[in-house]
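In the previous lecture we treated proteins in isolation. Real proteins rarely work alone, and many bind small molecules. This record shows how such a complex is specified: first the sequence, then the SMILES for S-adenosylmethionine.
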Amino acid sequence: MRDNSVPRPFLKWAGGKTQLVDELTRRMPAYFGNYHEPFLGGGALFFKLYREGRIRHAVISDLNAELVDTYIAIRDHVDDVIGLLSKFPHDKDFYYRLRSQDPAKMELPKRAARMIYLNKTGYNGLYRVNRQGEFNVPFGSYKSPQYCDTENLRAVSKALRGVEIICASFETVLERANAGDLVYFDPPYAPLSRTSNFTSYHANGFSAQDQEKLRDVCKELGKRNVNVMLSNSSAEMIRALYASPHFVIGEVQANRAINCNGQRRGKLIELIVTNYPLEQRAQLRLLEKRASFAAPVA
Ligand SMILES: C[S@@+](CC[C@H](N)C(=O)[O-])C[C@H]1O[C@@H](n2cnc3c(N)ncnc32)[C@H](O)[C@@H]1O
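The predicted 3D structure, ligand included, written as tokens:
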């Protein structure tokens, strides 16, 4: 069912977490400082937390520069983005003309309007680039796609006020997260079988070594008393990486495309890993213990 509350994700994003957000919020710590989301994508959890008034300060980031620029443009120039989108026609020739233009040569609002338009009118809302980094998704077959949703774009802009938006790889979160903060990691999922290759969101993909590096970042954050929550597929490799007393592994069911062209859907088990206990009383005991360590010596 479509969630019409605002602000909500303004892009369709592969691996978007809209259907898992309730499971995720249920597993969050009762209290946390700053919120960090280093694999932002469509930002389903960020927007849900904002709607619930649970964010004090947020730092959101992603490796995809066009995506990050789109968030920055909506934060800083939402009227210009809306102005452009409202004039874009839903038309195949216009789509291919806009697609062929180089976003790097555009002003920020136009780059964002192009990204939103191509995402909402292109085939299946895919983000795919060729070896040269050029967006190469064909025109989609939507009757009346909503690419200029003024109410939501304005609400998104308001939610992004004061938010730090960064283009960086996930490990840089180590430079920003402090004790008591919450980091939510939603990396490209590890493939369930050797034949599935759906991890290539970015020209570089996300390798098994990247998954290992991510686990090491989670461990390091734990040592610094930072709360970590991570979602991933239930691939054996992921279960093995997080099988340690540092982590709690939970299972949830998600409705996902189960073949490569996305036509067959089915229930799949996915994992939500945390580095803190899920039970609230246990969380409070942990907080007290940490507070007593932090108390100044008389
Ligand atoms: C599963 S998607 C996130 C989906 C998001 N949670 C949502 O609700 O839409 C993974 C994201 O990780 C980004 N990404 C891939 N490799 C990365 C890296 N090394 N560091 C940071 N982000 C990366 C991709 O650009 C993509 O947006």
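Summary for your notes: The first helix runs from residue 21 to 26. The radius of gyration is 20 Å.
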